[in-house]
Amino acid sequence: MNPYRDLRTGRLTMAPVAWRDLPDLQALKGDPRVYAIMLGGVRSPQQAAEDLAEDIMFWGRHGVGMWAVRLAGTDAFLGTVGLHERPDGRGIALRFAFVVAAQGRGYASEAAGAALRFAHERAGLERVVALARESNIGSRQVLGAIGMVERESFLRDGERVVVYESRQ
């Protein structure tokens, strides 16, 4: 346990992703019900392993990254939440994805809120962005619930994408 990087909320424990999480991450990222709308789309087991290696290195380079989210007291894997560099130059972005069985229970808002507080209060990030397809009402509700504000939108592959921002 790393008291600086590990987070706990009322219902959740969050620890930086690690190799022990690989089977859970492969299942999450391989599920089209979850990952078809994510940037990069559904991931093969090999791609999920490559993503994990990059996520671990990102923590080492930047002091922020992705967390594995688990239900406190049971250790059941619920999903991921965290901070990563956007490939389009928009900066550090908040990202989250939860297994289908964990969706609609408020876990995403709880975990994303904790990650955003970590970004501003512990990591000292002045600005964090998040992107969601306009049609992804669930993610947009999460981003609004944790205090992120719509700033702009753009078209990607014929679909409108909304850019959210949080400033410290």
Strand numbers in spatial order across the main sheet: 1-2-3-4-5
**CATH fold-level assignment:** Aminopeptidase
Task: Give the CATH H-level superfamily.
Answer: Gcn5-related N-acetyltransferase (GNAT)
The structural class is alpha+beta
What ranges have pLDDT less than 50 throughout 5 or more consecutive residues?
Answer: none
Strand count, sense and barrel status of the largest sheet are: 5 strands, antiparallel
CATH top level assignment: Alpha Beta
CATH architecture assignment: 3-Layer(aba) Sandwich
Strand % is 25-35%
Total of domains: 1
What is the rounded distance between the termini? 27 Å
Number of helices: 5
Average pLDDT for all residues: 94
C-alpha geometry: globular
The run of helices and strands is EEHHHEEEHEHEE
In total, the number of strands is 8
Helix proportion of residues, in percent? 25-40%
